[in-house]
Amino acid sequence: MTAIAAHTTWMTQRQLKALVRQPAYLIIQFIQPAIWLFLFGSLFRKVAELPGFGAPSYLDYLVPGVVVMSALSTSMWSGMTVLEEIDRGIMDRFLVLPLRRSAIINASVVMQSIGTVIQSLIIIGLGLAAGAHYPGGAVGLLVLLVVSVLVAVVFSALSNTIGMLARERETIIGLSVFLLLPLTFLSTAFMAPALMPHWMRIVADCNPVNWALEAARAAMSADPDWARVAAQGGGLLALAVGVTALSVLTFRAYQKSV
Question: What is the pLDDT of residue 227?
Answer without folding.
Answer: 96
